[in-house]
Every structure is written in C-alpha cells, then in structure tokens.
Amino acid sequence: MGIRVLTAAMILGSLAHAAEPDVASGPWDLRALRQPPQVTWLAREGTLRSLLYANEPYRGKPTRVFAYYAVPEPRQGRAPAMVLVHGGGGQAYPDWAELWAKRGYAAIAMDLNGCGPKGEPLPDAMPALDHRFIFQSMSEGLRETWPYHAVAAVLRAISFLAAQPEVDSDRIGITGLSWGGFLTCMAASLDGRVKVAIPVYGCGFIYEDGLFVPDFQKMPDADRKLWIESFDPSRYLAQARVPMLWITGTTDIVYPLDIFQKSYRLPRGPRPLSVIVGMPHTLVAATTAAEIGLFADQHLRGGTPLAEMGPLSVQGETVEATFRSPVPVAKAALCYTTDTVIWKERKWETAPAKIAGDRLRAPLPAPRPIVFFLSLTDARGVTVTTEHRALGEKERPRE
User: Fold this and answer.
1) CATH 3.40.50.1820 region(s) of the chain?
2) Domain 308-391 belongs to what architecture?
3) Environment class of residue 299 by beta-carbon count within 10 Å: exposed (0-12), middle (13-18) or buried (19+)?
4) Tens of pLDDT along 131-177?
5) pTM score
6) Do the Cβ atoms of 27 and 11 come closer than 8 Å?
C-alpha cells in the first residue's frame, strides 16, 4: 500500500514540475532530464566514438548507459542529429550510427539493455530489457522498472546531443524500432526539442492487442492500471506536435495494425504513414528503409518532401484518395485482405491503382469483410499510404 501512495505522489510531483507547459510528464522529472548528462568518454576521436553517460539511480545506486556517437566528416557548420533507439534483443549498433554520419548527421546509438560494447553487463547497469523488468517489477516502484529507465536514457541522449559543439540543437530527430519505436513515441510526446520522429513498428495501446497482452493479463489489476497510465504511449501521444512518420508492415508480429492506427491518430502534428505489405520485423528493414532518411532530411535539412496522401473515400465499389507529390509517381496500388484471423496471420493482396491527375482510384474486390488502403510509391522508391479501412468486418480477433 505504501508503495502505491509513494508512486502516485511521484507522478503528481512530476506533473507539477513539467519542463514544458501543459505537458503530462508521468513519473519523469523532465526539467532534470533536459540537463546534459555526466559523460565518461571511452573513445573521443574519429568519426565513431564511444562513451558512458549517467542515467537514473537503480535500487539506490547510480547507473550509466553505454553509447556509440558518430559525427559526420567533413562538416560545414553545426550538423543535424539523430537519436537511434534499438528494440528487444538489440544493443548499441555502431553501424547504425555510422550510417547516419554518412548521411551528414551526428548520431547516438545507446544500449538500453544495461550492456557495454561487447554485450557484457555493466557493473552500474540500468534494468535489462527483459519482461521481468518491463512488466513484473511494479511492486518495487515505477522508478525501478525498465520503461522508466529507458525513457530517461533516451531523453538524456537528446540532452547529450544538444550539448555537443558540432550539433545544431534545433535540428534533433529520433527513430527507433519495435521497443525503440515505442520509446520514440514517448520522446516525441515528452520532449519539445525533438523536431522529427520516426517510430517503426512500435506504438501505444500495447495492452489491448499484440505480443504483450499476456503480460498484462498476468499483472495484478492495480499494477496493470498504473503501468498503462504511466508508461503506455497512448497516454502521451496526443500532446505530440512534431512531424512523425509511422512505418510498419501489414502483418507485424508484435504491434498489430489496429493499435498502430489508434496510436498514429493521436499526435497533432503532421503524421504521414507508410504501411508496407509483408515488411518483416527486422533491424535491417527498420534502419535502411529509404523513407526514414528522406523524411529526416525533409524536416532537418530542407530536403525534398515525401508525398502527401489525402483520406480514403469510398464511392460505391470504388476507393480513391487525393495525393500531392513533388517527385514523379512510379506506381500506385490497392492493398487489401479479406482474412478475418488475427492480424499477423492475414494474407494481403495488391492490385494496381489508377493514377488520374492528383487522384488514386481502384475498384474494391467483392468479398466482404475486407480491410484495405491505397499505396503510392515515387521515383525514389519511397512509399506512403492512406490509413486502412474495414468494410463489413465484425469484432476482430485478438492476439
């Protein structure tokens, strides 16, 4: 009982000390997290560097996070920067940081599993990225859980970048995959210094559908309610104003399309969508998609924008949407499924859509129920899509 009272007080205290007006801050002290963290450099020269930076105390002891930091060479003036957030089973990826440095960005890729450069546990580690510390340690208090430490570590990575002399602190973005996409949603909602966000796969409402529902079902009612109110991105996304590109696959094995859609509808800034038929839930797919770098360039370097899609319109047996693209369109398609099994097991089909001026148009296949959306790919190979819509579909099966 005492733990519950202390936790509630912790939340209220944080809300009262939010770093930005009208921002729900949950259990985090956002003002403190905006300060540059204490850094121990392990390698400070060259394009790829490494460091440890201080994070929140865990069980009464200080912790540090290992990270790679890559800088672009040669540089002209201060560079834009990206925070790179791995998913479950991941680590600080040096190649990922170097990829962004080659694009002209400073980039930090941190380890959120409490490990060092060779995967060895740090002596002053944060909680591991493990279901035990994500869902099963609530009885110790919110500040002893992985989500609390992971969000703090991501926000401190932003603070680290903002303090670097080679970084333009007004041009910082973030992207992450899976749990990293989950954390990208949180950072975009909690920290106004983020100027562009690209969550891949990860989203909110994870207690409603997807891989983690069994974990929530095993939690005591009070723990489950407190976890959702404190850590689920659905509680924060409505306050996000930053441009956010949402990327996922039609049959993602962790975050189904229903909760993904509920999540991307919450932010109040631009929120283009790229849903790819058959996109696998992998590091390679989530870090090398052309859409990611070009969307970051659009908002941090004045690059050519992605195409914009209007809402779906269904007229009889025809579906259409308007679009605007600064780059010639290579192809358009209707993507659909008539399956009614759980999302990750549905088979998706594609059929050509007609391009007529600024409109895409396609006939709807006859079977009902049907779930569908329109897809546009430009000459750069960049795909944007409309939201999906269901016709004739009853309550969908859950995972």
Assistant:
1) 2-300
2) Sandwich (2.60)
3) buried
4) 999 999 999 999 999 999 999 999 999 999 999 999 999 999 999 99
5) 0.93
6) yes
DSSP 8-state code for residue 227 = H
Query: 171: how many CB neighbours lie within 10 A of its CB?
Result: 21
Residue 186 backbone zone (phi > 0: left; psi -120 to 50: alpha; other: beta)? alpha
Question: What is the token pair recorded at 325?
Answer: 């693209």
pLDDT tens for each residue of 110-136: 999 999 999 999 999 999 999 999 999
Query: Which regions of the chain carry the CATH code 2.60.40.10?
Result: 308-391
Q: Which CB contacts under 8 angstroms, 24+ apart, belong to 131-136? A: 131/215, 134/215, 135/212, 135/215, 135/216, 135/218, 135/219, 135/227, 136/215, 136/218, 136/219
Pick the CATH number of 2-300 from 3.40.50.1820, 3.40.50.970, 3.10.450.50, 2.40.240.50: 3.40.50.1820
Whole-number Å distance between alpha carbons of 122 and 116: 6
Residue 390 exposed, middle or buried by CB count within 10 Å (0-12, 13-18, 19+):
middle
Nearest alpha-carbon partner for 293 in 108, 70, 84 = 84
Distance CA 172, CA 187 (A): 12
Nearest to 376 by CA among 330, 336, 310, 337: 330
183: helix, strand or coil: helix
